[in-house]
Amino acid sequence: MQAFKRIKLGQALTFQRGFDITKAEQTHGSIPIVSSSGVSSYHNVAKVNSPGVIIGRKGTLGTVHAVNTPFWPHDTTLWVKDFKGNDPRFLYYFLKTLHLENFDTGSSNPTLNRNHLHKIEVVFPVDVDVQRKIAGILSAYDDLIENNRRRIAILERMAEELYREWFVRMRFPGYQNTKFIKGVPEGWEVKPLKSILAEIKSGIKKSELSNETLYVGLEHIPRHSLLLNDWSTGDSVDSNKLRFESRDILFSKIRPYLHKIVLAHVPGACSTDTIVLRPRKRSQEGFALMTVSSDTFVELATIASKGTKMPRADWGFLKEQNIPIPSDACLELFQNRFDVLFMQMVKLLQSNDLLNQAKCIKLNRLISGRVNVEKLKIQLPSGMASKDRLNDASCSEELAHA
Hints:
Elements: E1 4-8, E2 14-17, E3 31-35, E4 38-43, E5 52-56, E6 64-67, E7 72-73, E8 77-82, H1 88-96, H2 114-118, E9 121-125, H3 128-168, E10 180-181, E11 184-185, E12 189-192, E13 197-200, E14 203-204, E15 214-216, E16 232-233, E17 241-244, E18 249-252, E19 261-263, E20 268-270, E21 274-279, H4 285-292, H5 295-303, H6 315-318, E22 322-325, H7 328-367, H8 387-392
Parallel strand pairs: 3-7, 15-20
Antiparallel strand pairs: 1-9, 2-8, 3-4, 5-6, 5-8, 10-11, 12-22, 13-21, 14-17, 15-16, 17-20, 18-19, 18-21
């Protein structure tokens, strides 16, 4: 524990409040605008150079984000203006252990005050070499997790491309020998979407929710993805919800243009602002999911949505839309291929869950000093190879005016 000392957080870093910017003031570019919940949009101007460590100041408190490119920290965040010679990557992990959401100083709106955070007493490894070793161990887990995420994204693109090849370009197996009648393959039927998808409105009472109940809010449903990869527990929910089963489709009703549509691989409860859809036949699952998650369908849902400030998808309208429905044999073939891809995605997600659990255990032990790394010989990731590059790349304000 010689490398660890009790200090105030402000001795290890300096937080700075982010910069306000409205949607109207943004010009689309490659610079991430980091808000309290993460990257919210992109702009063509940076305020701060990399590396960046950012925490949620308002709204979603205490969340910790790291960026390796120039960025714009939003007004809802605090960013590390001065790392004070400490390793930026280590500070990213260190801040995750402090549960900063518990230091809320807002009276009505949750808020973190940087001056209060600077006064927090922490046990901190002052030896930068120790910091880098700890960060190197934890980064190895993150690298594996990120690699699995990339593999999941590739599998999702493969499923989308298979759908487009078969059902948009009409190059399904045997298409060369299939007769088309008014643009529809023989053996297919043109029917409303409701003929293959049923809306499920099964409610679950607040009293039935527990810490064992998987709860999916709209914030948990990822954009432009097929796989549910985040959730919370039902004991934190304060109202009645909808029930869904494994292999149900969850379609976010609010602002359909956000493109939040996933296939659940586990049962649970979800927000009442979610449309829960269930294929009428198992063989229709993959086709139905890819249809309602296609850009064309999402655009239709957006155009037909009701409301202005908070537009909601109108399933009553959408379910009546006629679509060409493939033959049972074609659907079975597609489902078989889709199942292979989807189950690979689920296995990778489960692998990431195990990696995250292991990382969390290591994180607390390493940063508390219970595991001594001073004498360990660790091969650092390539991004951490240069100590000077990381420590000298201090954040600089007002890049926009440079």
